[in-house]
Amino acid sequence: CYYTNWSQYRPGTGKFIPSNIDVSLCDDLIYAFAFLSESRPCTLTPIEWNDDGSNGYEQFTSLKMLKPGLRTLLAVGGWTMGTTSMTLMLSTQETRAEFVSSSIEYLRSRNFDGLDLDFEYPGSRGSPPEDKQRFASLVQELKAAYDEEGRQTGQTPLMVTAALGAPKSVIDNGYQVEQICQDLDYISLMSYDFEGAWNPYTGHNAPLKVRSDQVGNDVYLNVEWVVNYLVEQGCPKDKLIIGIPTYGRAFSLIDPSQTGFKAPTGGAAPAGPFTREAGFYGYYEICSSQGFTRVFDSESKVAYQYSDSVWIGFDDRETVRKKAQWINQEGYMGAMIWSLDLDDFTGSFCSEGSYPLLTEINLALNGDSTTPTTKTTTTTSGPVTTTTTAPPAGKSQRPLSPRATISFSDTCEGLDSGYVAYPGDCTKFYQCVNGQGTENMCAPGTFFCPSMGICNWWDALTDERKEECSD
User: Fold this and answer.
1) Distance of alpha carbon 300 from alpha carbon 178, whole angstroms
2) Catalytic site residue 195?
3) Residue 67 DSSP class
4) 405-470 classified as CATH 3.40.1440.60
5) What positions does the domain Chitin-binding type-2 occupy (predicted)?
6) 100 vs 43: CA distance, rounded Å
7) What is the mean pLDDT of each run of 10 residues along the chain (471 residues)?
8) Catalytic residue among 38, 48, 98, 120
9) Best CA proximity match to 85, nearest among 51, 127, 116, 129
10) Are 87 and 46 in contact (CB under 8 A)?
């Protein structure tokens, strides 16, 4: 699960901080992003003013106290970093060694469990062709150094993972697939952004399968083709984690009578009220939009919705379930989401509970075969009818989580988000979101510390808190 450090700046209920994360829904949490230094020595460097402190890295990695086995990684790169500093770091064995050795200290001192390489992209966007081989060398050198440091210190070795771009040209230009798959702990495939408002016609953000009307290079624009291509290139299925977006790509329609795929468009749709980026909507902005007709495409296994002026290709509970089931059926390692802050994390927009998409993915990956309750439509052929289906009687909308959602008018009143003590039991705490609280258990051997908002070891508690917990 990816966390983005800029989501803290969204207005109102769109604001997202580490305490909004539901750790029960993720095995690994990845903090996006750190950058590379622009000059030597080649090192990791924080981006936001509060990354390297108690409200950033520290609060994020402290979430491990809430769930035994949870791992936290730091992602370096991202689209806005570009490739200049990456190319500098990759350029020689000496510059790579600077980065490798400094990254160990950086990650260990900040309690991260590994590094996620999100360079976009080796061999593209101004990066020279030589960076393809140099990136593979970096992965090999990181893995060797992290394993050796683990042996010398007796600690679990730091993980090395990577997020790979999905376009065929990006793969061909940037990745020695078989070699990097051998050395990486896993690969997160960025299997989204296949189409967007950079095209003059409508197209889906993340189709699972190819449509019969797609020809030429368009047959590459789907999850199934890309994953099969990586396997053919030598990447084992048990190293591949398939990305599922919690956002959609939106277009401005030119002709309201043309509402299917390849309909002519006039650029990006207006920005949403929370994400505030033209042509890009979080799921919670999509599910709460009015005046749209939803269509499920039976070939590509994804949904889109349209109004008189806007067309949005997105994933909802039905389509993420189909993707998660497909991941299981095909034997891939698992699923990744981009990103936590774009799902309806508060549960206040979609009337589907908190984290409806991530919950649905978890349920499907864990073998639950229940059909999700969502808007239903006909397929793309014929007239479209949109209805809303209520949950089956007695069926929880969030059966995965073992915790009951309770309203605490006194305990959580006035809190946008945060953790508060559970009266009378220091091994428990409440997570508050918009006046609603969920009861949580600390990891075994730890106790909730209200001043820090985390569970901690007994010796780390204040004397006052120890006294409270001894009563």
Assistant:
1) 28
2) no
3) S
4) no
5) 409-471
6) 8
7) 98 96 96 97 97 94 92 98 98 98 98 98 98 98 98 97 98 98 98 97 98 97 98 98 98 97 97 97 97 97 98 98 98 98 97 96 87 52 34 28 36 67 85 68 78 75 87 74
8) 120
9) 127
10) no
Cα(388)–Cα(287) distance, integer angstroms:
12
- Look up residue 269 and give its DSSP letter: P
Q: Would you kindly state where each structural domain of the chain is located, as residue ranges?
A: 2-245+317-368, 405-470
Query: Residues 12-46: pLDDT tens digits?
Result: 999 999 999 999 999 999 999 999 999 999 999 99
CATH number, domain 2-245+317-368: 3.20.20.80
DSSP code per residue over 361-419: HHHHHTT--PPPP-EE---SSS----EEPPPPTT--S--S-SSPEEE-TTTSTT-SEEE
Q: What is the pLDDT of residue 435?
A: 62
pLDDT tens, 142-191? 999 999 999 999 999 999 999 999 999 999 999 999 999 999 999 999 99
| Total count of residues recorded for the chain | 471
Which amino acid, one-letter code, is at 53?
A: G
